Amino acid sequence: MKPIRVLLVDDHSLFRQGLCSLLSKEPGFDVVGEAQDGLDAIAKAKELKPDLVLMDVSMPRCDGVEAARRLRQSFPGMKIVMLTILESDKKLFEAIKAGAHGYMQKNVKPELLFRTLRGVFSGEAAISRATAAKIMNEFADQARHGGSAAREELTERELGVLQLLTHGMTNKEIGQKLHLAENTIKNHLKNILDKLQVENRVQAAALALREGLAHDPTE
């Protein structure tokens, strides 16, 4: 299996180099480049075509929000994971709405970092169960898509999958809960994203909470 080609983006060179060293030593990852801000990231992404961009939220010239928006427009298949110091960073939620596939705090343990990045690359969202509700509630009421048509289009099984998704469950966990194969869950999620007209799992969960398609996982 080919390694995941990663572009690292952070304006603090010491942190960026440390992250590069960490990922370079882990099997399955290939750090193909580094960038110091959003504009640099966009240029490097065009040149290097990475599979995944691991990017700081707050940077000079062009922050992670704007960079994520531009990268998603130019490279819709590219995975983007945001790094942040504070979970409450407003820019973080804006980046996820812009199309980022998830986020992690900068003090994350290496084992969780590796596992999360592999999960994102295989279609899982980089959101822990503990923080899923916090992210979704922050921007669920700002979702732009209507929910009435989506409620009619989703099958009973898809609604069940969507409900579990709002609890921060992985595909494997959803499959175990519903007694279905993981590949079956992936197919259901693809259909859900298409029907709701959203880009990723996080946005689907947010829309579900806003439109009453699923219950708030904090309740």
Write a short abstract of this structure.
By secondary structure, the chain is α/β, with parallel strands linked by helices. Helices cover 52% and strands 13% of the residues.
Describe what this molecule looks like in 3D.
With 219 residues, this protein is α/β, with parallel strands linked by helices. Helix content is 52%, strand content 13%. The protein contains eleven helices and five strands; from the N terminus they run βαβαβαβαβααααααα. The chain has helices at residues 13-24, 38-48, 64-74, 90-97, 110-121, 129-139, 148-153, 156-165, 171-178, 182-196, 201-210; strands spanning 4-9, 29-35, 52-56, 79-84, 102-105. The protein has a five-stranded parallel β-sheet with strand order 2-1-3-4-5, sandwiched between helices. The radius of gyration is 17 Å and the shape is globular. The model is unreliable at 143-149 (pLDDT under 50).
List unreliable stretches of 5+ residues.
Answer: 143-149
Outline type: globular
Decide which structural class fits the backbone.
alpha/beta
Order of helices and strands: EHEHEHEHEHHHHHHH
Measured on Cα atoms, how large is the radius of gyration?
A: 17 Å
Strand content: 5-15%
Helix content: 40-55%
How widely separated are the two ends? 41 Å
Main sheet record: 5 strands, parallel
Question: How are the secondary structure elements laid out?
Answer:
Layout: E1 4-9, H1 13-24, E2 29-35, H2 38-48, E3 52-56, H3 64-74, E4 79-84, H4 90-97, E5 102-105, H5 110-121, H6 129-139, H7 148-153, H8 156-165, H9 171-178, H10 182-196, H11 201-210
Parallel strand pairs: 1-2, 1-3, 3-4, 4-5
